[in-house]
Amino acid sequence: MHIVRDSLWQNIEFSSSLKKIIETSDFLRLNDIKQLGPTYLVYPGATHTRFNHSLGVYHVASRLIEKLLQKGADEFLTKEGIEEFKIASLCHDLGHYPFTHALKELPLEEHEKLTAKIILNSQIASIIEDENLSANNVAAIIDDTIEANNEQVIFFRKLL
């Protein structure tokens, strides 16, 4: 396991395959996108990035899965599905444009669709497939226009 020290969540643990995803250029570009857009110009401490946000969402999703498993969710969730959900939670914002929330009125493609395209058409897909997981399931958890091929995908969409 690898650890990232986060000011809000403390230690965020992730596997070697997730580390490979985090090290891709598609993920690292999230360091350059402010989560709160230009808010930092008024509040200088508001510098949280989509990179930080994505790590936090992954951490919360992992904690949520742990609690669900303690309550018996392993009866209907597979190990593969859980890992696909964790990857989806980590990658859910890959398709975000800078200042996206401020640009909602523009006819831009939804960031969920862009995220799915990035996952399916980049080295991230091969990282996922190398773990015997489905890149299509990961993309389908994020982008609800992709047909879900099992009930777990639909369940995980709702969690995400």
Structure description:
The protein has 160 residues and is mainly α. The relative contact order is 0.14. The protein has helices at residues 16-22, 25-28, 50-70, 79-91, 111-120, 123-130, 135-142, 151-159; strands spanning 2-6, 10-14. Strand 1 and strand 2 form a beta hairpin.
- Biggest β-sheet description: 2 strands, antiparallel
**Continuous helix count:** 8
Q: What is the percentage of strand-forming residues? A: 5-15%
Low-confidence spans: pLDDT under 50, at least 5 residues? none
- Alpha-carbon Rg, integer: 16 Å
The structural class is mainly alpha
Shape: globular
**Structure summary, number of beta strands:** 2
**Helix and strand sequence:** EEHHHHHHHH
How many angstroms separate the termini?
Answer: 23 Å
| Average of per-residue pLDDT values | 91
- Helix share, percent: 40-55%
Strand order of the largest sheet: 1-2
